[in-house]
Amino acid sequence: MAQLLILSPAADDDVLPALSLLTHRIRVIPASPEQLVRAPESDLLFLDARTNLAGAKALAQILRTTGLSSPLVLIVTEGGLMAVTPDWGVDDVVLEGAGPAELDARIRLAIGRAQSAQPSERIQTSGVVIDEASYSAKVHGRPLDLTYKEFELLRFLAAHPSRVFTREQLLSEVWGYDYFGGTRTVDVHVRRLRAKLGDLESLIGTVRNVGYRFNVHEEDEQAPVAQ
């Protein structure tokens, strides 16, 4: 049983009637960029393109550029199939009248392909997901708008949970041995990174007179895992 999210301009949830015959959990939200900020986690996204192909294409491309990791499946009419091209960035298409067997098979295959294609360098811990392949990071599903060095700093610290690094060590590991700036650069980036982490700013801990470390929450059962 999968968690499915349907993005649709329709007011009702009868976008794919065959879904009602399956056991998957379904959530429908309006198909608009502003709704994506609070979109719940899902194993697969359906994007309703039955009535507005241009709007659906724009939204699909926004989803891909923001680092969407779940499969994206387009719902179209038979006439709409002619408009779908690779630059839409979708993983599959399904006709609105697809039967339950076909629909269930497409869901299984799309999720299976996504799981097998997950990058090897993906760190997930304490509510943070860091994807090195796409240089993206999320906190509780919310994308973080990080600069390159902020991302590298977060990735490095999270890859070595609870280990303390001096500013000099971080400078050489993240900025490189040929960087001529001072260690204050590290403090500035830590401060900016904490601000962007919001409620999870305490993940970047300060060890007085030594440096910084990545704090793993006590409720976490295991250290960050690379998937």
UniProtKB/TrEMBL annotation:
Q: Which SUPFAM superfamilies does the record associate with it? A: C-terminal effector domain of the bipartite response regulators
Q: Which InterPro entries would you find in this protein's record?
A: GlnR_N, OmpR/PhoB-type_DNA-bd, Sig_transdc_resp-reg_C-effctor, WalR-like, WH-like_DNA-bd_sf
A single Gene Ontology MF term assigned here is: transcription cis-regulatory region binding
CDD domains the record matches: trans_reg_C
User: Which is one Pfam family of this protein?
Assistant: GlnR_1st
Its Gene Ontology biological processes? regulation of DNA-templated transcription
GO cellular component entries: cytosol; protein-DNA complex
**SMART domains reported in the protein's UniProt record:** Trans_reg_C
DNA-binding span(s) = 120-216
UniProtKB keywords: Activator, DNA-binding, Phosphoprotein, Transcription, Transcription regulation, Two-component regulatory system
User: Which Gene3D superfamilies does this one have?
Assistant: 3.40.50.2300, Winged helix-like DNA-binding domain superfamily/Winged helix DNA-binding domain (1.10.10.10)
| Domain spans labelled OmpR/PhoB-type | 120-216
Instruction: Output this protein's name.
Output: DNA-binding response regulator
Q: Which organism is it from?
A: Agromyces agglutinans
Classification from the root reads: Bacteria, Bacillati, Actinomycetota, Actinomycetes, Micrococcales
